Prior knowledge:
With 182 residues, this protein is an alpha+beta fold. The protein contains 5 helices and 6 strands. The strands form 2 sheets. It has a 4-stranded antiparallel beta sheet with strand order 3-4-6-5. It has a two-stranded antiparallel ribbon with strand order 1-2.
Amino acid sequence: MFEDIINTCSDKMSKVIDQFESRLTSVRTGRANPMLLDHIEVEYYGAMTPINQMASISVAEGKTLVIKPYDASSLKDIEKAINKSDLGLPPSNDGTVVRITVPQLTEETRKQYCKEVSKFAEEAKVQIRNVRREMNDQLKKDKTIPEDTQKDLLDQVQKDTDKYIKDIDAIASKKEKEIMTI
């Protein structure tokens, strides 16, 4: 029974890590990466559809994303969605594919992206701490748990919290290093 609480805690914290990693894919590193387009949705026959479900996305020459739609009639819609997105990269349409050239990042831009990564990391840490608080409250309210067991469970929740915060720091550090690499 008590393991359920610890497992729930670990599951929630794992989901925070997954969301954090997913969010980091939208941060540019100076190299073309198809995951840059993961958050972009295109209006396709009246429904918002992720771009990666309606086109093949590949990298050409390491600096260019090539988007080849499965339905050629959606080319203009894809181009319009990329222009509207917060990507900040202009697409070019040659009639069959959309190309996005990813320019080399300047030192200032790299630092700006590192700040963004730090902000995302801090938000993830806050979410982890909120899960810890929620679990601690749940454990303290449950009067059926013996005092010694409750203390052990609270310690385990804190150990999980420390572990996941350390994981967030490691992931953020790796991403910052990737951004700063020329």
